[in-house]
């Protein structure tokens, strides 16, 4: 019987796993994961924890038959493939710049053993949704229309029992411990938790999703982002569970399309990970002096004196999560009230978020900064106080994360005035808004 290697990466599940189906069809399967020190260093403790917890569950689910080894994939994968005489190495495709380069190196190092990519972490993989002339979309709405037309297949029927798994215990390849940095996560990791969370959201959250998704006080979203990031569930499984006729289903699908859109944008413009997608913004003036550093520290630690901004930044620091509306408000504040480079904020988010994802994060930031695809017009500057009135009308979200304001009401809550221990605003919003618009006008 021939033997195949299944190399797990951002697909830490057994259900709806097209690459597993392809590997199982090829023969006996050895499951492996390579702990790449470069990713370990850039993951942030929470993502590393989520990864480790998910790997432990995957290993248990496979009865221990998961080989975990540390090193450069271009060295480890050919070594393991040789050890079992693999006819092929199977993967789910990775479209991020780092993953693409890594896979090219592994492909070259494997020589005559093919690296076979089947499936991707997306509903519609990057590169598949293009205009009639084959060029990529720069605007979400027409992308979304075409994305729906392209569509996706039904979930793959896979699971633990679909393959004959090889036992790595006797293999000469060096094993390593699964990472366990000791970070506390606000959510359970792994495939079972992802399925459970999704089921609970379908039962209790979907109906009110369209109405409540912008309300941080109501916890109106699915909390599926970290599961999607690590592929403990495939978005296709989720889409299959969405009854399109149900309230909330279309809005939810639209968000999954946003995820695909940003992955596609990063795929087509890999430099946009850290550079302005719209290079017109390269000339915008940002601050980087010692006062800017001081403001950045206040923003990171939730001590700007703007209650909604501080609530979001404290939630992020304490839990590794922040709701989308608050991500937009805190990002806008960093760029347009503090005049700091969006890259500073994006890097901080990536260091904290459990769901930190290069495509969604960098392009979420560029949207807020005005320099991305489809961007919010630069002159539209979020007012953190009125945003709070609109999206946290009772103030419960602020009170949950800013204990100094727990007893405050009315203007005292909104403006953070009065209570001792809460900092005064570090800037005047109206003044900084005018300054942001001045800097924007200087571009033309
Ligand atoms: C500045 C900024 C940074 C962001 N950084 C990330 C990030 O690092 N990782 C990440 O997954 N999302 C990021 N987002 C998008 C969004 O905020 C999160 O996906 C969402 O808050 C996750 O919570 P949820 O799963 O409850 O979302 P839900 O509202 O339940 O959405 C369902 C899923 O759709 C996708 N989605 C929703 N909104 C977006 C969006 N605007 N862009 C792309 N995908 C979306 C996510 O996969 C999400 O899990 C960012 C947005 C902004 C404005």
UniProtKB/TrEMBL annotation:
Binds 1 FAD per subunit. FAD binds at residues 209, 221-225, 252, 255-262, 355-357. It is an enzyme of class 4 (lyase). Its EC number is 4.1.99.3. One of its GO terms (biological process) is response to light stimulus. Keywords: Chromophore, FAD, Flavoprotein, Lyase. Residues 2-123 form the Photolyase/cryptochrome alpha/beta domain. It comes from the Bacteria. GO terms for molecular function: deoxyribodipyrimidine photo-lyase activity; DNA binding; FAD binding. Pfam families: DNA_photolyase, FAD_binding_7. Its cofactor is FAD. Belongs to the DNA photolyase family. This is Deoxyribodipyrimidine photo-lyase. It comes from Mycobacterium attenuatum.
């Amino acid at each position: 019987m021939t033997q195949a290697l299944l190399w797990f990466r951002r697909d830490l599940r057994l259900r709806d796993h097209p690459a597993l189906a392809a590997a199982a069809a090829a023969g006996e399967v050895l499951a492996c994961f390579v702990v790449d020190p470069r990713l370990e260093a850039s993951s942030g403790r929470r993502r590393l924890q989520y990864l480790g917890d998910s790997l432990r569950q995957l290993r248990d689910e496979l009865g221990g038959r998961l080989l975990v080894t540390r090193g450069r994939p271009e060295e480890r994968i050919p070594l393991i493939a040789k050890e079992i005489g693999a006819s092929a190495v199977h993967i789910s495709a990775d479209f991020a710049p780092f993953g693409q380069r890594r896979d090219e190196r592994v492909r070259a190092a494997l020589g005559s053993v093919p690296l076979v990519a089947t499936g991707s972490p997306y509903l519609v993989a990057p590169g598949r949704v293009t205009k009639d002339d084959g060029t990529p979309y720069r605007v979400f709405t027409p992308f979304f229309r075409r994305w729906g037309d392209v569509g996706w297949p039904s979930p793959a029927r896979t699971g633990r029992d679909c393959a004959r798994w090889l036992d790595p215990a006797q293999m000469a390849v060096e094993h390593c411990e699964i990472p366990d940095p000791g970070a506390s996560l606000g959510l359970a990791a792994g495939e079972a938790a992802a399925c459970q969370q999704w089921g609970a959201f379908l039962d209790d959250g979907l109906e009110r999703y369209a109405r409540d998704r912008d309300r941080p006080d109501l916890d109106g979203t699915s909390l599926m982002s970290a599961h999607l990031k690590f592929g403990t569930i495939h978005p296709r499984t989720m889409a299959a569970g969405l009854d399109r006729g149900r309230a909330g289903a279309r809005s939810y699908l639209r968000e999954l399309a946003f995820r695909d859109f940003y992955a596609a944008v990063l795929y087509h413009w890999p430099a946009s990970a850290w550079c302005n997608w719209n290079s017109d913004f390269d000339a915008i003036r940002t601050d980087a002096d010692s006062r800017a550093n001081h403001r950045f520290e206040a923003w990171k630690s939730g001590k700007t004196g703007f209650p909604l901004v501080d609530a979001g930044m404290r939630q992020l620091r304490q839990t590794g999560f922040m709701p989308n509306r608050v991500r937009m408000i805190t990002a806008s504040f960093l760029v347009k009230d503090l005049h700091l480079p969006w890259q500073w904020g994006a890097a901080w988010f990536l260091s904290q978020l459990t769901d930190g994802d290069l495509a969604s994060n960098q392009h979420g930031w560029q949207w807020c900064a005005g320099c991305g695809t489809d961007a919010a017009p630069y002159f539209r500057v979020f007012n953190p106080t009125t945003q709070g009135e609109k999206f946290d009308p009772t103030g419960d979200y602020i009170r949950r994360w800013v204990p100094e304001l727990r007893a405050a009401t009315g203007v005292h809550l909104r403006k953070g005035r009065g209570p001792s221990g809460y900092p005064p605003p570090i800037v005047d919003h109206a003044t900084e808004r005018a300054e942001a618009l001045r800097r924007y006008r200087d571009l033309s």
